[in-house]
Amino acid sequence: MGEKRADCHPLGLKWSRGAIAAEKGNAHSSGGSTRDWRPFRAHIEVSAIDEAKYHDTLLKEYAEAGALCRNIEQLTRTSLSLFVPAATALAGFVVAPSLSPLTKLVLAVAGLAYALLLVNTVHRNRAYYSKYVARAKEIESLIKRESALVMSLYTSGAEVAKSSRTFSNKLAIAAVFWLAAAYFLCAAIVYTRHVFGAASAS
């Protein structure tokens, strides 16, 4: 009754009875006794509490991956919400006739730097998001193999996204930032020519 099961891996994975029998057979065939089996037996013994901890750790990691994915989505949308009014104002000042070419050049460079920084942020968030989703899908697969609990939120979501044949939200937002960066780059080039052209003419 008090003996621990010997067919479990320390992480909760099952050892086949054939593998255990083979190890016992190896001990006997090598001229040893059942005592030679004890190191292997001690290695694979695990209590039900250890297995429960393993599944609990997976579920906690799964929940953490979901929380991080939601945070990344929120951060990306917040970046877009802050950028649109600021970029619109800068774009308006860049073409304002009352400002000097030098001032417009400075504003265009500032807009370009702002847009490129946000492009970097979105692509970095997209990379982290992909890793977190991949890990969540992996946990779903592990739990499905090890227990009767079926979790398929991220697996099903990936299938729907693939079948929709559309861009992801983060990729679409990055495209907005790239377009803004291209606009400010063109403006910076134009006003650089104006500034240095006027300086050379004088």
Outline:
The protein is mainly alpha-helical. Helix content is 78%, strand content 0%.
Task: Give an account of the 3D structure.
The structure is a single chain. The protein is an all-alpha fold and 202 residues long. It folds into 2 domains: 46 residues, no CATH class; 150 residues, no CATH class. Helices cover 78% and strands 0% of the residues. The chain contains 6 helices and no strands. 18% of the residues are buried.
Tell me the domain tally.
2
Helical content band? over 70%
Q: Low-confidence stretches at least 5 residues in length (pLDDT < 50)?
A: 1-20, 39-44
Largest sheet: none
Helix count, per DSSP? 6
Strand tally = 0
Distance between the termini: 99 Å
The H-and-E topology, N to C, reads as HHHHHH
The radius of gyration over CA amounts to 30 Å
Please tell me the overall pLDDT.
Answer: 77
Approximate strand percentage: under 5%
Layout of helices and strands:
Blueprint: H1 17-29, H2 38-44, H3 48-94, H4 101-146, H5 153-164, H6 169-201
Helix pairs in contact: 3-4, 3-6, 4-6
Summarize this structure as a short list of keywords or feature phrases.
202 residues, mainly alpha, 2 domains
